[in-house]
Design goal:
With about 240 residues, the chain is an all-alpha fold. The chain contains four helices and two strands. It has a two-stranded antiparallel sheet. InterPro entries: FBXO28.
Length: about 240
């Protein structure tokens, strides 16, 4: 029975896809039922017969639960049974101790792994928090970049408008420079004419004043006065010519 149970356990351990739990339990129930049937059919009759043939006087006896047969114990048989029981008990204790040590070792390994898993979870949480912060910063940066792109597009549009205005002003200035020499020549001609007119009028006024002075001056018989008069008359005549 133990061999069959170990076979089932090895099957569960070695198989990558073990059967379902209810199937395993059903298999174990079948094994236990077969063991009980085998004990009732094979072991129990032989045990009763051996007990009946080995009755010893002076030894306490008691009935079996299933019949009226007596189980007797002699000192030698008791010693052998107890010795066998002690050996089996020692083996069982050693096995239990090994299992306990292995379980303890597995528990320590499990606790170590659990601590590592806890640290990894904390690290993953921190990294997730950092990732969220980085994503938030990236969103803010993308928003700022979008705003800066809009500002750059507005500045570019204003720059193009000002460039167009500067081009128009430059064209108007060049046209004004082309038209300015003609205006300057006309103005200079006008100024020259006005200056000539002023000179002529001033000359005529001066001549009129000189004539008036000559006419209003008294006649004199002095030779100097006569010469001066002739000189002035000649001068006036030359200037009039």
């Amino acid at each position: 029975v133990i061999d069959e149970i170990l076979r089932v356990l090895r099957l569960i351990k070695d198989t990558k896809c073990p059967p379902r739990a209810h199937e395993i339990l059903q298999e174990l129930r079948d094994i236990s039922s077969m063991a009980m049937e085998h004990f009732d059919e094979k072991i129990l009759p032989a045990l009763k017969q051996s007990i009946c043939t080995s009755v010893v006087s002076g030894v306490s006896s008691y009935e079996l639960p299933g019949g009226s047969l007596m189980i007797s114990h002699s000192p030698s048989s008791a010693t052998s049974i107890y010795g066998h029981h002690s050996i089996t008990h020692d083996n069982f204790n050693r096995t239990i101790k090994k299992v306990f040590l292995k379980t303890k070792k597995n528990k320590m390994s499990f606790l170590t792994l659990q601590g590592r898993i806890t640290k990894l979870r904390l690290r993953m949480k921190r990294q997730a928090c950092q990732i969220r912060l980085q994503n938030k910063k990236m969103q803010e940066q993308s928003k700022k970049i979008h705003e800066q792109e809009q500002q750059i597009s507005d500045m570019k549009r204003h720059f193009e408008e000002w460039e167009q205005k500067i081009g128009d002003l430059t064209a108007e200035l060049s046209r004004a420079r082309e038209d300015s020499p003609k205006t300057d020549s006309i103005d200079s001609c006008k100024r020259k004419r006005m200056e000539l007119t002023k000179r002529d009028s001033s000359t005529k006024e001066l001549q009129a004043k000189k004539r008036k002075l000559i006419v209003e001056r008294k006649t004199s018989t002095d030779a100097k006065d006569v010469k001066f008069k002739e000189f002035m008359s000649k001068l006036l005549k030359d200037s009039s010519d």
